[in-house]
Design a protein that fits this description.
- By secondary structure, the protein is of the alpha+beta class.
- The chain has two domains: 2-75, no CATH class; 98-152, no CATH class.
- It contains four helices and five strands; from the N terminus they run E-E-H-E-H-E-H-E-H.
- The strands form two sheets. It has a three-stranded antiparallel β-sheet. The chain has a two-stranded parallel sheet with strand order 4-5.
- The chain binds zinc ion (ZN).
- Residues 8, 10, 12, 35, 37-38, 40 line the site of zinc ion.
Length: 152
């Protein structure tokens, strides 16, 4: 048996075992050797020394780009985590310092806006319809992401 370093016409390199050099020539000519990466059958023996250097640097490049993807992924995860933490902090701040008016949020916000009640921080729930009405009346409010509705 003989081990050849092979490459396809797209420069994918791989190893192939053959009974002898002639067997390789015959199989290659007959299109019986397939590139394991792309399935092409235009296979040749990889030139020895220069190709080893080239394929080595190619491997390093792809290793780097894989690492790069991982960094991007980790970074995206960190940013998502930070946003989540900020949202949680904002919610905690609101829940600690503002008055919970529950489902009456729209009424209370409106009352405050028209001076019918004391100004102060309130929080609660508003339906989409209520939110829209408040916006139309020019009443400022902030949506707190991930606000957990109390099931009482
Ligand atoms: Zn290939």
């Amino acid at each position: 048996m003989i081990l050849y370093k092979l490459q396809c016409c797209d420069e994918h390199s791989f190893d192939g075992w053959f009974r002898d050099g002639k067997t390789f020539d015959r199989q290659a000519k007959a299109g019986q050797i397939e590139c394991p990466y792309c399935g092409k059958t235009e296979i040749s023996k990889a030139p020895m020394a220069p190709n080893i250097a080239k394929s080595a640097s190619h491997d390093i490049e792809s290793a780097n780009s894989v690492a790069g993807d991982r960094v991007t992924e980790t970074r995206a995860h960190q940013v998502a985590q930070q946003i989540l933490e900020a949202a949680t902090k904002a919610r905690e701040y609101v829940e600690k310092n503002y008055e919970d008016v529950g489902d009456k949020f729209a009424d209370e916000a409106r009352a405050m806006h028209y001076g019918e009640r004391e100004e102060g921080g309130i929080y609660g729930h508003a339906s989409e319809k209520e939110e829209k009405e408040l916006e139309e009346e020019g009443i400022d409010f902030v949506r707190v992401p991930g606000s957990n509705r109390k099931n009482s």
